[in-house]
Amino acid sequence: MPANPPESIPFYLDPDRPLVERVQDLIAHLTLKEKVSQMTHEAAAIPRLGIPAYNFWSEGLHGVARSGRATVFPQAIGMAATWDRDLIDRVASAISDEARAKYHEALRRHGSTGIYQGLTFWSPNINIFRDPRWGRGQETWGEDPYLTGEMGFAFVHGLQGDDPHYLKVAACAKHFAVHSGPEALRHTFNAQVSKRDLNATYLPAFKKLVMEAGVEIVMGAYNRTNDEPCCASQFLLAETLRKAWGFKGHVVSDCGALNDIHLHHHVTQNAEGTAALALKAGCDLSCGVYDFLEDAIRDGLISEADIDCSLERTLGTRFKLGMFDPPDQVPYASIPVSAIHSPEHQALAREAAQKSVVLLKNRNAILPISDKVRRLLVVGPNATSLEPLLGNYYGMNESLNTLLEGIFGGAPEGMQVNYRPGCLLAHPNNNLSDWTFYEASSADLTIACMGLSSALEGEEGDAILSSANGDRSDIGLPPNQVEYLKKLAQAGARIVLVLTGGSPIALGELEDLVEAIVFVWYPGEAGGQAVADVLFGRTAPSGKLPLTFPKSTNQLPPFEDYAMSGRTYRYSDEEPLYPFGFGLSYTHFVYSGLALDREVISSGEALPLHFTLTNQGPVEAEEVVQFYLSDLEASVEVPFHSLIGFQRVSLKPRQSREIAFIIQPEAMMLVDDEGERVLEPGEFRVMVGGCSPSARGEELGAPEPVSALFQVMP
Predict the structure, then answer these.
(1) Catalytically active residues, by annotation
(2) What average pLDDT does range 437-457 have in this prediction?
């Protein structure tokens, strides 16, 4: 936009006037046809008013995506495994730095921006990862509504910034709501969910991002929820989002979701009817269909005032981003191009990847790899591939570090390291005389880089090796990988299994055949370096699982069933392979001395507590302290345990620290059958530890938790 325009400028170009006045003035300058041209994600230019074209569609799930060179951070589910709010805030701030630099450089060079070059970022995905078969679960922050809300809050804050007048970028909470597969049915599916599950599981993270983080955009989902299309739902958009939560930003449809309303959900008869239904419900911006709004006005389905209402919101976002102001008045407009993939951001990507690594097994403390190891063999389809670094919705750069490169670069001189491909990602090997097995039998350790990639799981149309539209029908490793690992073990190899993936992997008998298991997710550009840092002990693993790993698909309810009963650590009584919150370290943490401020409280009171955490091992490390609450006398079905807090704590060897925490009254509330939050009197148990409460966690090596009972009186 022009710098320091003359005094005769219209209100909308005057940065000193209130935002509401500026938006309304711009709308008053628009013809109906021009208004409609601003109602889709590809907003047209209006040359007579000096308004350039703008495309609202940009992605920033774990780095600026699909827009050339950018820092690639771990996939969202990997960042969730860090359980580190501050880290996620810093990562999102780095992403928005790069977004700003790229946006302004595109404007400088070309005078406009295109798709994926804007400042409206359709991230984060805060859907609940309720079923491990869902291919897009990798985009989420896991299965727990509290963890999702906390990490999503930090991500939104880092993206949007702290300036009182301008947004750094506009973040988007998606997909609203009750959306988590199956991908093959997403355009037709009607998610039936109880009021209790809706308000106890599916909505809390959205509520937090709207009411506390101030997220600027909310994206509607493809599916229907309780019979209403999400992008045209009176309950979700009008009653909940706008009225109950007071959302002031704009709502955008998922791309193609409005077409689904008449083509697949058959709620309306045609695009004109869909456009009217969605607009009246509160969907402000469409990825398709709103080209028919003029027809809807002509036929009396909507009024021009309805369009103006939505334009106030979408244009309001653009004004908050400084798009109509002189660049020298927008603090973020001066972020230099040198911020893109800067050394600081590269270091941050490595830190994030390090903290995302989850150590699941470490028999006889075989890790970290000691100096006594003289011969190391690296095998597996994911050792040399870039795909397992990236996940989906990714950027690219010249510094992607594969697992093999990281291991070769991290191994100490004097250690012999060799590599063999071993097997393919998902196809049987035809080599009947593979030399790998001989080499593995003579190596001190074999690092097997196995698991999944975005070819096997992801969004509909993305995962080219998936036969279920990006989902997985089975949650085990591909059969050829299983067979290969069995042959390695039979040959006498001592296997360290390094698994990539964005969702749980059931291991079956393989769990007993390997010495150690390291889950590294899709770790981003520094994945190889970060994994090597953990394997060779330059950093102690500290990641914790943000979701439950079932033993098999047989433990799961039907994929299409959205009832939470039997799902996640909160409602399932099945013994998992690895429990929510689990992750080992190279040291041993001890919890002791839990003391409540008092054992009886009145309804509505907070309850302080404290305890001692000790690092009894030989290395400095970080522990993720987790707080869980159980309502022992609830009148309705409630979770077995609910995460109510967490904290990363760094301790040196033999160091102890007293840690305080306050159980807030809101954490003691249950959600009743009508979806209302109420605080009932009765007995509660608080448990503090390094894993969700379970015998399985302790059996696997998690620290013994401490617990206490307290009573809430009327």
Answers:
(1) 254, 457
(2) 96
